[in-house]
Every structure is written in structure tokens, then in C-alpha cells.
Amino acid sequence: MIRLKDTKHQNTAAFLGSAIRIAEYYGFSPLEEAQRKDAAEMRLLRSRASKNETEISYARREERPLALAAKRTATLARIPGETLLLWRTVGQEKGGEEVALELHVIGNGSAIAEALLIVTANAIAHDAGLGERVLAINNIGSFESSNRFVRDVGTYLRKHIDTISPTLRPRAAVDPLGTLVQLIERGHPATPRAPQAMEYLTEDERQRFWDLLEYLEVFGLPYELSPHVLGSRDCWAHALYQISVLDAETNTRVPIAFGGRYDPLAARYAAAPTSAATISISCEIRGKVRSKREVPGIPSIYFAHLGSEARRRALSVLETLRQAGIPVYQGLYHERIGEQMLAAQKVATPYVLIMGHKEAVEGTILVREVATNSQEAIALPELVNHLKRHRVGGWKMETHA
Hints:
Elements: H1 12-25, E1 29-30, H2 31-37, H3 39-52, H4 63-73, E2 84-90, E3 98-106, H5 111-127, E4 133-139, H6 147-159, H7 169-174, H8 176-186, H9 203-219, E5 224-225, E6 237-246, E7 253-261, H10 263-270, E8 276-284, E9 293-296, E10 301-305, H11 308-323, E11 329-330, H12 337-347, E12 351-355, H13 357-362, E13 364-369, E14 374-379, H14 383-389, E15 397-400
Parallel strand pairs: 1-2, 4-5, 10-11, 10-12
Antiparallel strand pairs: 2-3, 3-8, 4-6, 6-7, 7-8, 9-15, 12-13, 13-14
Helix pairs in contact: 1-5, 4-10, 5-9, 5-11, 9-11
């Protein structure tokens, strides 16, 4: 949980206002708005969800709020190939100790979903003024491929059953992974030698995991692989990640964000295979909680990419533009350039930034003026100055209660 004394914000409302602005820059929109458009489907989903929730085996405290989010997001991506970027806040009830900003990418099964979530959360933490941060990542694979991992965890726990507290021993027999999570949180001395999930991944799952790590490396975001970032297989599959800040006084890590791919939970409530990933950033409640939402005006630029190398490089370009206050539309979740150009036509931006493989390798980007179809290759270090010099972009804000 973020402690406000470690940030530049005086109250929770100020933190949430800043965090939501950053999330919306990256394309996330309020979950409540999507829900209002799908009221009938949500009523059907709630009736189905109440039957399924009792079957879930939770391993972390973050998983119960995620189940509620999964109920609300499961039916929203009903069009094949459609990706939704959504945010919501939870825990604002009176008397609560913390509030969380959840970010969700629904309907996209590629590693760009997790990468976008991690980069956005990192930007929120950085802009809040948080100091040294640690990104820890693990991968538990699919439910099918991790069966041997869970079986070996059960065998390992039976060998150490005498060292486990009597209240936790019954769980070890029926939920080995949930028990291991509890032991890790308690600092049990046997956990460093426990089986590690990444050792059980299939070749396809290793490649999928490497795709995510490549995004982070190209972006320049340090990470560490940690076998202790775990969660229930009823909720999670594949990548799990946690962001922590270092406490200068105690030299310990304080977790501030946790997330991963929750396809199993989304599929449970949608009653069909569903791709979904999330990250939840928690902050203490102090002072004012509700903030005015500042909605940016319409961007005049669409950022399109062509090829995997350009897609990996695009995240750092977007962050540079965000820090410069230049709003853009983007479709990183699209696989094909044609889909992006159709999206650019739909929002009618007068300018399009295009990065292909050649531009990504050379460190340039094409700035195209739609009206004249003329374009110019600009070196990435000069992009912000070029756009501002030609008065491309802008940021007009409208305030909503």
C-alpha cells in the first residue's frame, strides 16, 4: 500500500486524480461507463456469478476484489478481436483504510496487455514521487501445465508439515499452492527451497513469458524474476507481477501494486474463454478521497506501429509524449496496421505517427499530415520539439465532478 507521506500528494483524492489522468492518457476509460452500456448483460452476469464464486479457492487478499471486477468485465469484450482498457476504484467506503485503482485490459491475450499495465502503473508511481521501486515477476503457466508444479509443492509441504502451524496444516492437503502463498507471507524458512513455477513452463509458455520481458527490457524498466509472486490458479494464469517500494528506514519492501493475467477467473464468469489482465495499485486513505475527474480533450495525433520491434519501442515513445503533455490516440493492442489506420480514420486525427521496423531500428518515426498525405522522418530525440514547434498536439482539459 502506498503511504502518502512517501509521495508528493497531501491526500488520497490528489493521488487518485493524478493516477487516473495517467491511466486515461494510456487509453483506459471508466469501467462504470462501459457497464451502463451493458446493463442487461450485467444483470444476467450477476445471477451467474453468484453460483460460481463459492467454488473459488483464494490465496491472496487481492483476489476477492478481483472476483468482483471479473464479474463486471467478463461480458464486456463480446466482439472477437475487440480490446477494452478499463479502470475503476474500490475500497472508498467510509471507515476503510485503503483505496485501490484497478486497471484492466480485457479481450487481448498477447504480452502487450501485461506490459501496458506495468508501464502505466510504473508511471503512476513515478509521478507520485515514490522513490526506489522493485518490479518482481513470476509465471505460473496455464492450469494444465502447472499441475505437476502444484503436485510437487504438495509433496514438499508434506515433508515439512511439522514446521507448519496447526491451523494451516489442513489446507496443505487440499490447497498446496494457497498454503505456500501463506507461508511466503509469514516468512517461513522452508519457502526458499520450495519448487518454482517457472521450471514447469512449456516451451510455448516460456516464449510467451519472454515476449513480456522483452517489452520491459526495451522500455528500460528493471525487473527481477521471483518465484514468490504467486496466486490462486482459480484466479490467475501465466504472468504475475508485484511492484514494491524500498522503505529507507527498515530497508524492507512495501508492496504497492499487484496483478497478472486472470483468464481463469474471467472465463468462469463469462462462461467462455476470455482474455483479461489487471494491476491494482493500493493507497492509504487520508483526507479527501473523491476527486474531480479531469478528462483530456480530443488528441490530434494517432500513434500507429507496424511490426513487433516497433510495438516494443512504442511504449517508451508514448511515455516520452505523456511527460511532454502531448496527447495521442494509440492502438498498441492491434496486431495489424490496417486496423490502426481504420481507427485513426474513425477519430479523424489530422496527424498520424507511424513507426515501422525500419524506424524502430533507426530510432526515427514518421510524422504524417493526413490532409496532404505528406510525411517526414523525425529522430526520436527530436520528436517532442518537432511536434511543439509545428503546434501538433495540445491538451485541453474539461473538469467533471
